[in-house]
Amino acid sequence: MTSILEIKDLVKRYDGGFEALKGVSLNIEAGEILALLGPNGAGKTTLISTVCGITTATSGSVSVDGNDINDNFRAARTIIGLVPQEVNLEPFETVLNTVTFSRGLFGKRRDPAYIEKILRQLSLWDKKDNAIRTLSGGMKRRVLIAKALSHEPKVLFLDEPTAGVDVELRKDMWDIVADLKASGVTIILTTHYIEEAEAIADRVGVINQGELLLIEEKTALMKRLGQKQLNVELQEPISEIPAGLASYDLVLGEDGRTLTYSYDTKADRTGITSLLGDIAAAGLTLRDLQTEQSSLEDIFVGLVHKEDAA
């Protein structure tokens, strides 16, 4: 696939010496959904602001569809749509006028049919004549997306788009993002919600303290870094793990009925067969077996904690 966004050695250093970005390099493919995960202050918003020209980089380069963000700013910025974290809309203006005006800011000719298409896609058409102040928080966020799409960008940045949105509206937003991808829009999403990355992203990047710790295809990442757990449910509770099972680093559940065994899916041997044999040798009777795959949240937390401890 072709890279539509190329970020190379991007550094953002403030006057006091604080480095918000420490040489971030990243290529984003056309048509993909990339989720950037990271705690508060990790550098996610700074990265987006720099790519969009809101913040000036100290060094490094950004190219959007072949246009350098510094040398050819207007062309590069026209390709980008940005949905910011903050809901900052004119409260007394109508939805239709708000979105139409945003299109004009990018020098695009009036296209009522296209604006209608966007508003219908975002379930806003029936509210086109409503003042912004009358809308719910979720609908205001939809207006922000409509504004960002009004000039037909190829790349859309969503900076914490579902922050403060209830679960139902959050799922609606995921559907919207999937529809946008289907229409050919490349999407870069920053989020605190791990389930968003698991639900909709093609690739996942983890950023912390201004550094990109990794970026990888989501399924491959979970397969490479994830572990599985075998939960062994016993017929009768026990008060402690038998000495014959000490080498397996088992965790005994609070109810005394569950033994949890963690193993590496990449290893030549999982140790499960010998474990089950030793459980039987210890005089324990099995009631049930279940396996669980580590979630993306487990992986993310482990990476960030490992970086912080370094």
From TrEMBL:
Q: Which CDD domains has this protein been placed in?
A: ABC_DR_subfamily_A (cd03230)
Q: Which UniProt keywords apply?
A: ATP-binding, Nucleotide-binding, Transport
Span of domain ABC transporter: 5-234
Tell me the GO molecular function terms: ATP binding
Task: Return any one Pfam family short name.
Answer: ABC_tran
**Record-linked InterPro entries:** AAA+_ATPase, ABC_transporter-like_ATP-bd, ABC_transporter-like_CS, ABC_transporter_ATP-binding, P-loop_NTPase
Q: Which SMART domains match?
A: AAA
Lineage: superkingdom: Bacteria
- According to UniProt, the name of this protein is ABC transporter ATP-binding protein
Organism of derivation: Cognatishimia coralii
Its ancestry begins with:
Bacteria, Pseudomonadati, Pseudomonadota, Alphaproteobacteria, Rhodobacterales
